[in-house]
Design brief:
three-stranded parallel sheet, 15 helices, 7 strands, mainly alpha, 2 domains, Rossmann fold
Length: about 280
């Protein structure tokens, strides 16, 4: 449910983005949907999907789900149930924002700049860490279940959030708690605007010199991050991604400098790394 609400808090697509998304649908022979013009796409393929269905293929070749989710959200529910080889093909588009499909006589480049969201149970039975204490999975069984997702793919997912089972009192209540999507959307829009004004791209696309310029860390922050790298054996990719997340947290707070609390929050959001 949370994943399906995500397009509702993201800023509307710009005119060029909407045209790119419409072009992908046009290649697939899908009519233009004026009603949802500039609304970010949301794709949720079933876990039985093949690699060509996910990234594209065929003799044509034609775009896959990663391209249909271009400028939007790709949601993979029950992540460990996907074939591991299918998941591994996501690594290239997650880094490059484009997917190249090569065939004997021709090749095609399709856009694939999407936000990946995935969901999985903490263990095969689903009760690991639950207050009911009903989990009966052995440590080996849990490790085998989680090993279906490779380290390199997990390394490319910036936020690892454990979602606990709500209390029955909360389920009975008719009152809505927390913020509405409209409220969150306004905060996200302000944050996105700050990023585009500052660097011309979203924080997720900062790289090289731009990353060093716009994600500067104080000596205190550097010491904290280096300690985390040693303690949790974080990769160089994780190191850079944590900086981008910390920069985004600072933008949401509408502050110009990354501080230790924001960096600590970014570290805390990579829960599977810490495990």
């Amino acid at each position: 449910m949370l994943a399906r609400r995500l397009p509702g808090i993201l800023p509307p697509m710009s005119e060029p983005e909407a045209l790119e998304t419409a072009a992908v649908n046009s290649v697939l022979g899908r009519p233009l949907d004026i009603k949802h013009w500039r609304r970010r796409p949301f794709r949720s393929p079933h876990h039985t999907a093949s690699a060509p269905a996910l990234v594209g293929g065929g003799s044509g070749p034609h775009p896959g789900e990663v391209s249909r989710a271009h400028n939007g959200v790709l949601f993979l529910d029950e992540l460990p149930e996907f074939n591991r080889n299918v998941l591994e093909v996501l690594r290239e588009p997650l880094e490059a924002g484009v997917i190249t499909i090569a065939r004997a006589e021709r090749h095609a480049d399709f856009p694939a700049n999407f936000q990946l969201v995935a969901a999985m149970n903490p263990c095969p039975c689903g009760f690991l860490g639950d207050r009911s204490g009903e989990c009966g999975c052995s440590a080996e069984r849990v490790a085998n279940y989680r090993s279906k997702i490779s380290g390199p793919l997990l390394d490319r997912i910036d936020l690892h959030v454990m979602v606990g089972r709500p209390a029955k009192e909360a389920l009975r209540s008719n009152e809505t708690s927390g913020e509405t999507s409209a409220t969150v959307a306004r905060r996200v829009s302000r944050s996105r605007s700050r990023q585009l004004v500052r660097s011309g791209v979203c924080n997720a696309r900062l790289d090289g010199a731009a990353l060093e310029t716009h994600c500067k860390l104080s000596e205190e922050c550097l010491a904290l991050l280096e300690q985390a790298v040693d303690q949790f054996n974080l990769s160089a990719r994780s190191y850079q991604r944590i900086r981008r997340v910390a920069r985004t947290i600072a933008d949401l707070a509408e502050v110009d400098t990354i501080t230790p609390p924001q960096l600590a929050e970014a570290l805390a959001l990579r829960q599977l790394d810490r495990r």
